[in-house]
Amino acid sequence: MNNKKMLDFQTIAVDFDGTLCYSKWPELGQPNQALIEYLQEWKRNGNKLILWTCRAGEALSKAVEWCREQNLEFDAVNDNLPEIIEFYGHNSRKISCDYYIDDRMLLPENAKA
Predict the structure, then answer these.
(1) CATH numbers and ranges of domains, the chain
(2) What pLDDT does residue 23 have?
Protein backbone atom coordinates (compact mmCIF):
# COMPACT_ATOMS: atom_id res chain seq x y z
CA MET A 1 0.00 0.00 0.00
CA ASN A 2 1.44 3.39 -0.90
CA ASN A 3 1.23 6.65 1.07
CA LYS A 4 -1.13 8.26 -1.47
CA LYS A 5 -3.72 5.55 -0.83
CA MET A 6 -3.42 6.21 2.91
CA LEU A 7 -4.52 9.80 2.28
CA ASP A 8 -7.66 8.84 0.34
CA PHE A 9 -9.70 8.85 3.55
CA GLN A 10 -9.64 10.09 7.11
CA THR A 11 -10.63 8.19 10.22
CA ILE A 12 -12.63 9.10 13.32
CA ALA A 13 -12.46 6.95 16.45
CA VAL A 14 -15.60 7.57 18.50
CA ASP A 15 -16.53 6.60 22.05
CA PHE A 16 -19.89 5.02 22.87
CA ASP A 17 -21.06 5.78 26.44
CA GLY A 18 -21.74 9.46 26.97
CA THR A 19 -20.78 10.25 23.38
CA LEU A 20 -22.80 8.28 20.81
CA CYS A 21 -25.24 7.06 23.42
CA TYR A 22 -26.49 8.98 26.42
CA SER A 23 -26.20 6.07 28.82
CA LYS A 24 -24.91 4.96 32.16
CA TRP A 25 -22.87 1.83 31.62
CA PRO A 26 -23.88 -0.96 31.15
CA GLU A 27 -27.33 0.32 30.19
CA LEU A 28 -28.15 1.71 26.75
CA GLY A 29 -29.79 5.08 26.38
CA GLN A 30 -30.90 7.68 23.90
CA PRO A 31 -28.89 8.34 20.72
CA ASN A 32 -26.84 11.48 20.20
CA GLN A 33 -28.68 12.07 16.93
CA ALA A 34 -26.61 15.07 15.80
CA LEU A 35 -23.36 13.12 16.18
CA ILE A 36 -24.81 10.02 14.52
CA GLU A 37 -25.93 12.06 11.50
CA TYR A 38 -22.50 13.69 11.29
CA LEU A 39 -20.78 10.28 11.33
CA GLN A 40 -23.18 8.86 8.72
CA GLU A 41 -22.29 11.77 6.42
CA TRP A 42 -18.59 11.23 7.18
CA LYS A 43 -18.87 7.63 5.94
CA ARG A 44 -20.92 8.61 2.88
CA ASN A 45 -18.00 10.87 1.94
CA GLY A 46 -15.66 7.85 1.83
CA ASN A 47 -14.11 8.16 5.27
CA LYS A 48 -13.72 5.50 7.99
CA LEU A 49 -15.12 5.01 11.49
CA ILE A 50 -13.81 3.11 14.49
CA LEU A 51 -15.95 2.41 17.54
CA TRP A 52 -13.49 3.00 20.39
CA THR A 53 -15.03 1.99 23.71
CA CYS A 54 -14.14 0.33 27.00
CA ARG A 55 -17.07 -2.05 26.50
CA ALA A 56 -16.25 -5.73 26.01
CA GLY A 57 -18.12 -9.01 25.70
CA GLU A 58 -21.90 -8.83 25.84
CA ALA A 59 -21.90 -5.10 26.65
CA LEU A 60 -19.85 -4.46 23.49
CA SER A 61 -22.13 -6.68 21.38
CA LYS A 62 -25.15 -4.74 22.63
CA ALA A 63 -23.46 -1.42 21.80
CA VAL A 64 -22.59 -2.54 18.26
CA GLU A 65 -26.16 -3.76 17.70
CA TRP A 66 -27.52 -0.47 19.12
CA CYS A 67 -25.36 1.39 16.59
CA ARG A 68 -26.66 -0.78 13.74
CA GLU A 69 -30.20 0.07 14.82
CA GLN A 70 -29.19 3.74 14.40
CA ASN A 71 -27.90 2.91 10.86
CA LEU A 72 -24.32 3.44 11.98
CA GLU A 73 -21.78 0.87 10.82
CA PHE A 74 -18.11 0.84 11.81
CA ASP A 75 -15.06 -0.16 9.81
CA ALA A 76 -13.43 -1.48 13.01
CA VAL A 77 -14.44 -1.97 16.63
CA ASN A 78 -11.81 -1.48 19.35
CA ASP A 79 -9.15 -2.17 16.75
CA ASN A 80 -7.19 -0.53 13.99
CA LEU A 81 -8.45 -0.56 10.44
CA PRO A 82 -7.18 -3.51 8.36
CA GLU A 83 -5.59 -0.99 5.98
CA ILE A 84 -3.57 0.52 8.83
CA ILE A 85 -2.42 -2.88 10.10
CA GLU A 86 -1.29 -3.79 6.58
CA PHE A 87 0.45 -0.45 6.03
CA TYR A 88 2.51 -0.63 9.25
CA GLY A 89 2.96 -4.40 9.20
CA HIS A 90 1.63 -4.80 12.75
CA ASN A 91 -1.31 -3.90 14.94
CA SER A 92 -0.38 -1.26 17.49
CA ARG A 93 -2.29 -1.09 20.77
CA LYS A 94 -2.86 2.61 20.03
CA ILE A 95 -5.67 3.24 17.58
CA SER A 96 -4.48 5.15 14.55
CA CYS A 97 -6.97 7.79 13.47
CA ASP A 98 -7.21 11.44 12.46
CA TYR A 99 -9.76 12.45 15.11
CA TYR A 100 -11.02 11.14 18.43
CA ILE A 101 -14.52 12.01 19.63
CA ASP A 102 -14.98 11.31 23.33
CA ASP A 103 -16.90 12.86 26.22
CA ARG A 104 -13.74 12.81 28.35
CA MET A 105 -11.61 14.89 25.98
CA LEU A 106 -9.15 17.30 27.56
CA LEU A 107 -7.32 19.86 25.48
CA PRO A 108 -3.74 20.55 26.63
CA GLU A 109 -4.30 24.32 26.74
CA ASN A 110 -7.21 23.77 29.17
CA ALA A 111 -5.41 21.25 31.38
CA LYS A 112 -4.46 22.16 34.91
CA ALA A 113 -1.55 20.47 36.63
Answers:
(1) 14-104 (3.40.50.1000)
(2) 84
Segment 18-35 mean pLDDT: 93
- 0.90 exceeded by the pTM? no
DSSP string, 32-75: -HHHHHHHHHHHHTT-EEEE--S--HHHHHHHHHHHHHTT---S
Strands 21-22 and 11-14, sheet pairing? unpaired
Q: What is the mean pLDDT of the chain?
A: 90
Nearest to 50 by CA among 67, 25, 30, 70: 67
Q: How far is Cα 77 from Cα 55, in angstroms, rounded to an integer? A: 10
Q: Which helix (H) or strand (E) holds 86?
A: helix 82-88
Q: Are 102 and 14 in contact (CB under 8 A)?
A: yes
- Are the CB atoms for 72 and 56 separated by under 8 Å? no
Q: Do 64 and 51 meet the contact criterion of CB atoms below 8 Å apart?
A: yes
